[in-house]
Amino acid sequence: MKEENEKNNALISIIILTRNGLSYTKLCIDSILENTELNYEFIFVDNGSNDGTVQYLSTVKNARIIANKENKGFSGGCNQGLKIARGKYIVLLNNDTIVTNGWLTRMVWWLEKDPTIGVVGPRSNMVLPEQSINPEQYKASSSLQIEKFATKWSKERAQTGNEISRISGFCMFFRKELIDKIGGFDPRFFPGNSEDTDFSIRTRISGKKLWVANDVFIHHFGNSTFMINNEKYQHLLVENRKKLLSKWQMMNLNEIDELVKRESPFDRSKHYIPL
Protein backbone atom coordinates (compact mmCIF):
# COMPACT_ATOMS: atom_id res chain seq x y z
CA MET A 1 0.00 0.00 0.00
CA LYS A 2 2.86 2.37 0.83
CA GLU A 3 4.52 1.74 -2.56
CA GLU A 4 1.19 2.31 -4.33
CA ASN A 5 0.68 5.62 -2.55
CA GLU A 6 4.22 6.74 -3.38
CA LYS A 7 3.66 5.89 -7.04
CA ASN A 8 0.37 7.81 -7.17
CA ASN A 9 1.93 10.82 -5.42
CA ALA A 10 5.06 10.95 -7.58
CA LEU A 11 5.16 14.28 -9.36
CA ILE A 12 4.66 14.28 -13.13
CA SER A 13 5.86 17.24 -15.18
CA ILE A 14 3.59 17.93 -18.16
CA ILE A 15 5.56 20.02 -20.66
CA ILE A 16 3.55 21.76 -23.39
CA LEU A 17 5.00 24.00 -26.09
CA THR A 18 2.89 26.75 -27.63
CA ARG A 19 3.26 29.12 -30.54
CA ASN A 20 -0.12 30.71 -31.14
CA GLY A 21 -3.05 28.31 -31.56
CA LEU A 22 -4.81 29.48 -28.40
CA SER A 23 -8.07 27.65 -29.18
CA TYR A 24 -6.21 24.32 -29.40
CA THR A 25 -4.28 25.01 -26.21
CA LYS A 26 -7.48 25.71 -24.27
CA LEU A 27 -9.02 22.41 -25.43
CA CYS A 28 -5.85 20.55 -24.47
CA ILE A 29 -5.57 22.04 -20.98
CA ASP A 30 -9.29 21.59 -20.29
CA SER A 31 -8.97 17.89 -21.19
CA ILE A 32 -5.98 17.46 -18.86
CA LEU A 33 -7.78 19.16 -15.97
CA GLU A 34 -10.81 16.95 -16.58
CA ASN A 35 -9.04 13.63 -17.05
CA THR A 36 -5.92 13.61 -14.87
CA GLU A 37 -6.07 12.34 -11.29
CA LEU A 38 -2.35 12.03 -10.56
CA ASN A 39 0.00 14.60 -9.03
CA TYR A 40 1.30 16.86 -11.79
CA GLU A 41 2.73 20.26 -12.61
CA PHE A 42 2.34 22.21 -15.84
CA ILE A 43 5.38 23.62 -17.60
CA PHE A 44 4.46 25.84 -20.55
CA VAL A 45 7.11 26.96 -23.02
CA ASP A 46 5.81 29.61 -25.38
CA ASN A 47 7.75 30.30 -28.58
CA GLY A 48 6.74 33.89 -29.25
CA SER A 49 2.94 33.78 -29.44
CA ASN A 50 1.08 36.97 -30.28
CA ASP A 51 -2.51 35.76 -29.89
CA GLY A 52 -2.97 36.05 -26.13
CA THR A 53 -1.62 32.59 -25.37
CA VAL A 54 0.84 33.69 -22.66
CA GLN A 55 -1.83 35.77 -20.95
CA TYR A 56 -4.14 32.75 -20.89
CA LEU A 57 -1.43 30.41 -19.63
CA SER A 58 -0.78 32.76 -16.72
CA THR A 59 -4.29 31.96 -15.45
CA VAL A 60 -3.67 28.19 -15.30
CA LYS A 61 -3.09 26.94 -11.77
CA ASN A 62 -0.01 24.93 -10.80
CA ALA A 63 1.91 26.14 -13.84
CA ARG A 64 5.28 27.64 -14.65
CA ILE A 65 5.75 29.56 -17.87
CA ILE A 66 8.79 30.19 -20.03
CA ALA A 67 7.91 32.97 -22.47
CA ASN A 68 10.42 33.15 -25.32
CA LYS A 69 10.48 36.33 -27.38
CA GLU A 70 11.51 34.29 -30.42
CA ASN A 71 10.83 30.78 -31.66
CA LYS A 72 13.26 28.30 -30.10
CA GLY A 73 11.77 25.41 -32.06
CA PHE A 74 10.47 22.13 -30.68
CA SER A 75 13.87 20.85 -29.54
CA GLY A 76 14.92 24.13 -27.96
CA GLY A 77 11.59 24.61 -26.20
CA CYS A 78 11.45 21.05 -24.90
CA ASN A 79 14.98 21.33 -23.57
CA GLN A 80 14.05 24.52 -21.71
CA GLY A 81 11.13 22.73 -20.10
CA LEU A 82 13.19 19.67 -19.24
CA LYS A 83 15.76 21.85 -17.46
CA ILE A 84 13.23 23.04 -14.89
CA ALA A 85 11.06 19.93 -14.63
CA ARG A 86 10.79 18.66 -11.06
CA GLY A 87 8.84 15.48 -11.74
CA LYS A 88 9.92 11.86 -11.43
CA TYR A 89 8.13 11.43 -14.75
CA ILE A 90 7.95 13.68 -17.81
CA VAL A 91 5.18 14.11 -20.36
CA LEU A 92 5.90 15.98 -23.57
CA LEU A 93 2.50 16.79 -25.03
CA ASN A 94 1.54 18.79 -28.11
CA ASN A 95 -0.92 21.60 -27.50
CA ASP A 96 -3.23 20.37 -30.30
CA THR A 97 -4.29 17.25 -28.42
CA ILE A 98 -7.26 16.12 -26.36
CA VAL A 99 -6.38 13.58 -23.67
CA THR A 100 -8.91 11.08 -22.37
CA ASN A 101 -9.83 9.54 -19.03
CA GLY A 102 -7.07 7.54 -17.39
CA TRP A 103 -4.45 8.47 -19.99
CA LEU A 104 -1.68 9.24 -17.53
CA THR A 105 -2.52 6.51 -15.02
CA ARG A 106 -2.21 3.85 -17.71
CA MET A 107 1.11 5.17 -19.02
CA VAL A 108 2.53 5.26 -15.48
CA TRP A 109 1.39 1.65 -15.12
CA TRP A 110 3.46 0.63 -18.12
CA LEU A 111 6.65 2.27 -16.88
CA GLU A 112 6.21 0.79 -13.41
CA LYS A 113 5.44 -2.65 -14.81
CA ASP A 114 8.47 -2.89 -17.09
CA PRO A 115 11.73 -1.08 -16.20
CA THR A 116 13.16 -1.89 -19.65
CA ILE A 117 10.69 0.54 -21.25
CA GLY A 118 12.28 3.93 -21.95
CA VAL A 119 9.42 5.87 -23.55
CA VAL A 120 5.67 5.19 -23.69
CA GLY A 121 3.35 6.67 -26.29
CA PRO A 122 -0.41 6.37 -26.90
CA ARG A 123 -2.52 5.35 -29.84
CA SER A 124 -3.91 8.23 -31.88
CA ASN A 125 -5.73 9.21 -35.06
CA MET A 126 -2.88 11.43 -36.34
CA VAL A 127 0.53 9.95 -35.58
CA LEU A 128 3.37 7.78 -36.90
CA PRO A 129 2.15 4.53 -38.52
CA GLU A 130 3.40 2.42 -35.61
CA GLN A 131 0.91 4.16 -33.29
CA SER A 132 -1.87 5.06 -35.70
CA ILE A 133 -5.42 3.74 -35.68
CA ASN A 134 -8.51 4.59 -37.69
CA PRO A 135 -11.03 5.46 -35.01
CA GLU A 136 -14.77 5.22 -35.38
CA GLN A 137 -16.17 8.45 -36.65
CA TYR A 138 -16.51 11.16 -34.05
CA LYS A 139 -16.56 14.92 -34.21
CA ALA A 140 -13.14 16.32 -33.30
CA SER A 141 -14.96 19.31 -31.87
CA SER A 142 -16.86 17.08 -29.44
CA SER A 143 -14.89 16.07 -26.36
CA LEU A 144 -17.81 13.87 -25.33
CA GLN A 145 -17.64 11.85 -28.56
CA ILE A 146 -13.87 11.51 -28.30
CA GLU A 147 -14.21 10.35 -24.70
CA LYS A 148 -16.91 7.84 -25.59
CA PHE A 149 -14.70 6.31 -28.28
CA ALA A 150 -11.60 6.31 -26.07
CA THR A 151 -13.41 4.64 -23.16
CA LYS A 152 -14.59 1.78 -25.34
CA TRP A 153 -11.21 1.46 -27.06
CA SER A 154 -9.24 1.40 -23.81
CA LYS A 155 -11.55 -1.08 -22.11
CA GLU A 156 -11.27 -3.55 -24.98
CA ARG A 157 -7.45 -3.31 -24.95
CA ALA A 158 -6.76 -2.99 -21.23
CA GLN A 159 -3.11 -3.57 -20.29
CA THR A 160 -2.03 -4.48 -23.81
CA GLY A 161 0.79 -2.90 -25.74
CA ASN A 162 3.77 -3.63 -27.96
CA GLU A 163 7.30 -2.53 -28.73
CA ILE A 164 7.86 -0.17 -31.68
CA SER A 165 10.92 1.09 -33.55
CA ARG A 166 10.34 4.83 -33.03
CA ILE A 167 7.83 6.94 -31.16
CA SER A 168 6.00 10.14 -32.02
CA GLY A 169 6.91 13.35 -30.23
CA PHE A 170 3.31 14.52 -30.03
CA CYS A 171 3.06 12.63 -26.72
CA MET A 172 6.07 11.06 -25.01
CA PHE A 173 6.07 9.74 -21.45
CA PHE A 174 9.28 8.74 -19.68
CA ARG A 175 11.22 8.83 -16.44
CA LYS A 176 13.25 11.97 -15.88
CA GLU A 177 16.30 9.75 -15.34
CA LEU A 178 16.22 9.01 -19.08
CA ILE A 179 17.24 12.63 -19.70
CA ASP A 180 20.14 12.21 -17.28
CA LYS A 181 21.26 9.29 -19.43
CA ILE A 182 20.75 10.43 -23.04
CA GLY A 183 20.21 14.19 -22.78
CA GLY A 184 17.50 16.20 -24.50
CA PHE A 185 16.44 16.94 -28.06
CA ASP A 186 18.88 17.76 -30.84
CA PRO A 187 18.48 21.45 -31.88
CA ARG A 188 19.76 20.77 -35.41
CA PHE A 189 16.19 19.74 -36.30
CA PHE A 190 14.85 23.29 -36.11
CA PRO A 191 12.02 24.24 -35.94
CA GLY A 192 10.58 20.73 -35.83
CA ASN A 193 10.37 17.24 -37.41
CA SER A 194 12.69 14.25 -36.92
CA GLU A 195 13.86 15.28 -33.44
CA ASP A 196 11.49 12.68 -31.97
CA THR A 197 12.96 9.92 -34.15
CA ASP A 198 16.46 11.02 -33.11
CA PHE A 199 15.39 10.89 -29.44
CA SER A 200 13.90 7.43 -30.07
CA ILE A 201 17.15 6.19 -31.58
CA ARG A 202 19.24 7.42 -28.66
CA THR A 203 16.79 5.90 -26.19
CA ARG A 204 17.17 2.53 -27.88
CA ILE A 205 20.97 2.82 -28.05
CA SER A 206 20.89 3.38 -24.28
CA GLY A 207 19.32 -0.05 -23.90
CA LYS A 208 15.70 1.00 -23.37
CA LYS A 209 12.75 0.06 -25.57
CA LEU A 210 9.92 2.15 -26.99
CA TRP A 211 6.38 1.12 -26.15
CA VAL A 212 2.95 1.95 -27.49
CA ALA A 213 0.19 1.64 -24.90
CA ASN A 214 -2.75 0.18 -26.79
CA ASP A 215 -5.04 1.11 -23.89
CA VAL A 216 -4.42 4.86 -24.20
CA PHE A 217 -6.04 6.95 -26.91
CA ILE A 218 -5.31 10.66 -27.37
CA HIS A 219 -6.91 12.73 -30.10
CA HIS A 220 -4.40 14.73 -32.16
CA PHE A 221 -5.45 17.48 -34.56
CA GLY A 222 -2.01 17.31 -36.16
CA ASN A 223 0.50 19.86 -37.54
CA SER A 224 -1.55 22.77 -36.26
CA THR A 225 1.44 24.87 -35.14
CA PHE A 226 3.00 24.64 -38.60
CA MET A 227 -0.27 25.59 -40.30
CA ILE A 228 -1.19 28.42 -37.93
CA ASN A 229 2.24 29.99 -38.30
CA ASN A 230 2.38 29.49 -42.07
CA GLU A 231 5.40 27.20 -41.92
CA LYS A 232 6.02 24.82 -44.80
CA TYR A 233 5.47 21.49 -43.08
CA GLN A 234 6.34 19.21 -45.99
CA HIS A 235 9.50 21.15 -46.78
CA LEU A 236 10.63 20.95 -43.15
CA LEU A 237 9.78 17.26 -43.05
CA VAL A 238 11.98 16.53 -46.06
CA GLU A 239 14.89 18.74 -44.99
CA ASN A 240 15.02 17.48 -41.42
CA ARG A 241 14.69 13.88 -42.60
CA LYS A 242 17.83 14.50 -44.65
CA LYS A 243 19.60 15.82 -41.56
CA LEU A 244 18.53 12.75 -39.57
CA LEU A 245 19.77 10.28 -42.19
CA SER A 246 23.03 12.19 -42.52
CA LYS A 247 23.61 12.32 -38.76
CA TRP A 248 23.17 8.57 -38.36
CA GLN A 249 24.61 7.58 -41.75
CA MET A 250 21.45 5.81 -42.90
CA MET A 251 19.95 5.47 -46.36
CA ASN A 252 16.40 5.30 -45.01
CA LEU A 253 14.43 4.74 -41.81
CA ASN A 254 14.22 1.00 -42.40
CA GLU A 255 17.81 0.85 -41.17
CA ILE A 256 17.02 2.01 -37.62
CA ASP A 257 17.26 -1.48 -36.08
CA GLU A 258 20.66 -2.07 -37.68
CA LEU A 259 21.78 1.40 -36.61
CA VAL A 260 20.89 0.74 -32.97
CA LYS A 261 22.93 -2.46 -32.98
CA ARG A 262 25.85 -0.72 -34.64
CA GLU A 263 25.90 2.26 -32.27
CA SER A 264 25.33 0.35 -28.99
CA PRO A 265 26.35 0.63 -26.23
CA PHE A 266 25.53 4.26 -25.47
CA ASP A 267 28.58 6.52 -25.65
CA ARG A 268 27.95 9.74 -23.74
CA SER A 269 30.68 11.60 -25.61
CA LYS A 270 29.03 10.68 -28.90
CA HIS A 271 25.30 10.30 -28.31
CA TYR A 272 24.41 12.65 -25.45
CA ILE A 273 22.65 15.95 -26.28
CA PRO A 274 23.05 18.57 -23.51
CA LEU A 275 19.99 20.55 -22.46
From TrEMBL:
The species this protein was found in: Bacillus methanolicus (strain MGA3 / ATCC 53907)
Pathway where it operates: Cell wall biogenesis; cell wall polysaccharide biosynthesis
GO molecular function: glycosyltransferase activity
UniProt domain Glycosyltransferase 2-like: residue ranges: 13-182
UniProt keywords, alphabetically: Glycosyltransferase, Transferase
CDD domains registered for this protein in UniProt: GT_2_like_c
Gene3D superfamilies per the UniProt record, alphabetical: Spore Coat Polysaccharide Biosynthesis Protein SpsA, Chain A
Name listed for the protein in its UniProt record: Glycosyltransferase family 2 protein
InterPro entries: Glyco_trans_2-like, Nucleotide-diphossugar_trans
Family: Belongs to the glycosyltransferase 2 family.
Lineage: superkingdom: Bacteria
